[in-house]
Amino acid sequence: MDRAYISLPTKAVANLSNAELFGRLASRLPFALEPAQRTAWEYQIGHLRQLAQGLPEAHAFLEFLIPRMGRRADLVLLHGGIVFVIEYKLGARLYDRSSFDQVYGYGLDLKHFHESSHGLPIVPILVATHAANDDGRNLQWDADRLARPLGVNADGLLPAIQRICQEHTSPPIDATAWENGRYRPTPTIVEAAQALYRGHAVEEISRSEAGAENLTHTADYVASAIEAAKRDRRKIICFITGVPGSGKTLAGLNLATARQRAHRDEHAVFLSGNGPLVDVLSEALALDAVARAREAGTITSKTQEDRRAAAFIQNIHHFRDDALATRNAPVEKVAVFDEAQRAWDVEQTSKFMQQKKGQLGFSMSEPEFLLSVMDRHDDWCAIICLVGGGQEINTGEAGIEEWLRALERSFRHWQAHIPDSLAHSCHLADEVTAPALHLATSLRSFRAERLSDFVGHVIAGDSAAARQVKAALNSFPLHITRDLEQARRWLRQKRRGAERAGLLASSNAARLKPHGVFVKAKIEPAKWFLAPSDDVRASDALEDAATEFDVQGLELDWTCVCWDANYRRDGDQWHALQFKGTRWQAVNDEARKAYVANAYRVLLTRGRQGMVVFVPEGSTEDATRARANYDAIYAFLSDCGFSDLPS
Question: What is the set of domains in the chain, with CATH numbers?
Fold first, then answer.
């Protein structure tokens, strides 16, 4: 796809009229042209003409796609061997933090994900057209040759570029080769949800090779299956599996947004039992919609956008509760169930229904009940189940077999589309096997592609295998420290722009309390993940630790995992414990042991760019914090490949 709406050498600008340039931009816009966008382009075209006169050897890209963020930079200029990423704020008299973070994010995106930009100097510039000028003399460069964002006014942009090029000489950049360089973006699930909700296609925001193709093939297959169900007036269920990090949630969001855009009458919905994920995504979509409306000069409200987001992303338990209140078919004809294997079994569902909902005699598992709700439709409907595995952290999770047993037992008239990689023992009346329903390519962070393998060996207690994988994680810092303040300093040093950092701890890490990590104090997930860094509730404040229940399905850029004695080494084995009253007690139930192990598996795989593990020194006076227990944990993690945090 074309990266920019317009790509041309600045010396060619004089040969085109303002109307011709505007027409090229408008012809590429996939949405209706808003008055605010017209005004912005008219201004930027006039300003480009001034820049072209002073920079005749430069190359300009207008509306350059920044895939990870699902946005377009107003202007990218290649000049003097430097990549200048420029964002305009018309009429602005101040350089606000969010605008600096936005343009810095563009620079980070290019540096990390655009292969042609990896080794080049990049300067993000915020043009607040009516602000006081910063002449660029205080430009600060990071070690990877990405400059801290610079703020200039409209008159100051040209002199700043000229001065920077004089002071920082670099070899010329081939504009064609640079533009054609491979882009391999890996958006966070929040960034992906925002971009898809705005109307971007999944191939625009995902890695441009096998990953995006795999997602596209899956989406095409499911779309075709849904259309066939509509035509034949039948009910279908599709199971989507994938390797760790393959983008199953991204695939589900893509399917739901695509159906909403093209078939509003279907009321496609994304359902998840992960409450924090729903809260964070809903809030992120609403905040982004309000910000975009403000930029476009249109009228909306946070309440209105909250309502729209809630219709698209819902907590599966709210969906269930609504279905209990009526026997009518739901308005949704297409339902995407995230982490479908975590739906409750018969025992857990019945217990909840009887104790919390007064549904005496309720005897269905959650999968069977949800199937029965969608089965109320007279004609057709479609369920898409996203199937993960290996991170069960809650009691009563039924696994994917319960969905299949419910189909076999009570819904034999449904057609089941199953990936060929999903083995099962059920005998389904109408089963279609489809390779396209398995996502075989990992889309994990550019630095963390093998992190899940490394963590798997750590949790399995195989330090030799962990060290071997660690050798392939050279660009992913893995540190360990006994000093929590040192860990905080490292996180603050590493975080740039709108990147997120945070403290993580197991929900039963009760003896981290002396270090100020109190896991019983609940966070507000939406605030923790989305609030600006100067908000004390934000993850970046590094005050409140999130648990495995808060962060499953979500990510941060930089993490500190605070490790307590509830998962400790004894000889050559891990042992799971829980803190009750005044002492640690062994966990003997095998399922509960797995929950403790998986809690640490979740915590250790939340970082996209780097991680430090904090292991307390312990105490010689407090038996609940025995030094020997923490020393054994520290020694094993060091043996796995975690290196001491540089002082």
Answer: 4-179 (no CATH), 189-439 (3.40.50), 451-644 (3.40.50)
